[in-house]
Amino acid sequence: MRTTVATVYSSLDGVVDHPEKWSLPYFNEQAAAYQTELLSRSDVLLQGRRTYEGFAPYWSAPSDDAYNDRMYEIPKVLVSRTLTEGTWHNTTTVTDDPVAAVEKLRIDGDGDGDGDGDGHILTYGFGSIAYALAEAGLLDEVHVWVHPVLARTAGPEDLMFSPGDQLVRFTHAGATTLDTGVTILRLVAEPRA
């Protein structure tokens, strides 16, 4: 069965929206190697509309770079109520319940009914899809990239921490500190009671 993994950039004050405004000075070869390894272990990329619209133009063609090539080739699942068709290479669009779509992807990778799901479903960021998966018990692992910066630019919708009525617990499974001061926390979901 596939596991679902979220990787998210966060400022010290919990801002996860528009990381390109504050995270770029902290991206180095170590960060690139970590992201490339995470992407190479994944066999499906799950995205909401906002992430999709940010990523698709940037990785719209194959290249000589391993990360860029994998980002272009990996099967992508776009979850959106407003975009009914994805134009990025190898994209399938889901317009209904993302939780049901991920439940199916976790069990049956290619949709042929033989239950051959294996590897990781990777999602970038921590928006409504990640929250829905966490609350449904379908988010297995989170990699939180804590950047040593106070972004101070966000409203409540831009924060990793949002109000909700369901407690979701994670266990610390490791940490990696980059030379730039970024600490990547690897957290694994605790089993539900």
UniProtKB/TrEMBL annotation:
The record's InterPro entries line, in alphabetical order, gives: DHFR-like_dom_sf (IPR024072), RibDG_C (IPR002734)
Q: Name one GO biological process term.
A: riboflavin biosynthetic process
Q: Where is the Bacterial bifunctional deaminase-reductase C-terminal domain?
A: 5-183
- Supply one GO molecular-function term: 5-amino-6-(5-phosphoribosylamino)uracil reductase activity
Output the superkingdom of the source species.
Bacteria
Name by which UniProt lists this protein: Dihydrofolate reductase
